[in-house]
């Protein structure tokens, strides 16, 4: 059933102004528990004019926002439109609303008293005619959190829903409440690649000891507002990780889709040009065990593949929902061509199987509800069987920055704990 406040609104017991205050006070979306592990989640929009509204979430097979085909339903006599879905109570997910053409193409009339416009969670279907990426907006009653802008534009600026049984991300909460840390910015030119890009470097809080040689993490798909430095600061000040530098590497628009796909030239650039460039400018360790390469999605694929092939440079790899199903020869189609199609083993998994076990530690997380979870489980099985020191985590969600931003804290705790990796003091 719909949230009780929707019934009060639809019967006239509450005015639209009173309902708006309720939304601002309680937060959106509205959540009502219906069983030990399920909740009804009611999304509310107040679109201009007669716009149709649908919901898209970062859960599902698409590496993007997956549309839920059921249209929001108008609440009679009010400017509001609502959609109630029954969901697992442990989900955390990014979401957006898509506003399209006139309402009425996918849903019934106004909501009567006691109704909630309920639709099955995960219902498929097209986005209404006239809607598209240009019509995507965050939930007006649940503004995007800090760090919601990211290098992959289609994921930027989304609202985040945290359902009551979702695993907490306490270090992200602390990071969001902190002032922005200082970040040095410079242009880095690569002779190997014949291009240049912006690099941002954040040093840890506090005074550095003389002759410091800091551990550090190189994070692909970097932006100057990335969450990683603030998460690092919270952990360092709590005494849980060693003071470490965070290096954020800009990816160059569409060039990202070449550079991060197991490209030997890009990996050589990181090892032969970027690391020496960084060490000339900052007091950074030369011990591979003190160096981590991190990334999300294609960045996670690149981090794992580069560390595997260059263990003398990167002794740690942080793979967040890595696209480890990638192989340049993989494709899909229909018709007679399917009779000759062969599916090779994905590149990162095949290279792990073929190579001698390297001195690299892997932190690996993935959403159990994203399309690539099967490949992540396969990669973890291969790494474990080959004897790698690896930590694999699955979270209750999809291919989603809402999780990656917080689980990066677990990656730092894995890579650079203040205690030795066997628990002994350093």
UniProtKB/TrEMBL annotation:
SUPFAM superfamilies: alpha/beta-Hydrolases. This is Enterochelin esterase. Residues 102-125 are annotated as: Disordered. GO terms for biological process: carbohydrate metabolic process. It comes from the Bacteria. InterPro entries: AB_hydrolase_fold, Esterase-like, Ig-like_fold, Mycobacterial_A85_antigen. Pfam families: Esterase.
């Amino acid at each position: 059933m719909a949230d009780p406040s929707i019934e009060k609104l639809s019967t006239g017991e509450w005015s639209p102004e009173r309902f708006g205050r309720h939304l601002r006070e309680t937060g959106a979306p509205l959540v009502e528990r219906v069983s030990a592990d399920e909740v009804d989640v009611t999304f509310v929009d107040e679109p201009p004019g007669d716009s149709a509204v649908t919901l898209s979430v970062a859960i599902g097979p698409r590496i993007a926002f997956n549309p839920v085909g059921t249209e929001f339903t108008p609440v009679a006599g009010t400017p509001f439109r609502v959609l109630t879905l029954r969901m697992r109570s442990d989900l955390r997910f990014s979401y957006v609303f898509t506003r399209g053409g006139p309402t009425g193409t996918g849903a019934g009339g106004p909501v009567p008293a006691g109704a909630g416009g309920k639709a099955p969670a995960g219902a498929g279907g097209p986005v209404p005619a006239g809607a598209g990426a240009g019509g995507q907006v965050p939930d007006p009653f649940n503004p995007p959190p800090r760090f919601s802008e990211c290098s992959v534009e289609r994921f930027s600026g989304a609202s985040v829903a945290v359902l009551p049984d979702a695993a907490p991300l306490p270090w992200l909460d602390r990071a969001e409440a902190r002032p922005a840390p200082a970040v040095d910015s410079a242009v880095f030119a690569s002779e190997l690649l014949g291009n240049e890009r912006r690099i941002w470097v954040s040093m840890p809080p506090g005074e550095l000891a003389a002759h410091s040689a800091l551990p550090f993490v190189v994070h692909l798909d970097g932006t100057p507002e990335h969450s990683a430095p603030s998460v690092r600061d919270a952990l360092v000040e709590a005494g849980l990780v060693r003071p470490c530098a965070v290096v954020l590497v800009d990816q160059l628009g569409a060039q990202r889709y070449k550079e991060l796909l197991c490209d030997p030239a890009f990996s050589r650039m990181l090892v032969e040009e970027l690391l020496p460039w960084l060490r000339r400018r900052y007091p950074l360790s030369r011990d591979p065990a003190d160096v981590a390469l991190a990334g999300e999605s294609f960045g996670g694929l690149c981090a794992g593949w580069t560390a595997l092939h260059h263990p003398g440079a990167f002794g740690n790899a942080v793979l967040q929902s890595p696209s480890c199903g990638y192989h340049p020869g993989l494709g899909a189609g229909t018709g007679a061509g399917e009779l000759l199609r062969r599916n090779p083993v994905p590149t990162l998994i095949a290279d792990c199987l073929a190579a001698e076990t390297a001195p690299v530690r892997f932190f690996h997380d993935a959403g159990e509800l994203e399309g690539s979870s099967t490949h992540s489980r396969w990669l973890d099985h291969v790494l474990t069987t080959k004897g790698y020191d690896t930590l694999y985590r699955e979270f209750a969600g999809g291919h989603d920055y809402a999780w990656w931003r917080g689980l990066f804290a677990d990656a730092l705790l894995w890579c650079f704990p203040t205690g030795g990796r066997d628990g002994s003091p350093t």
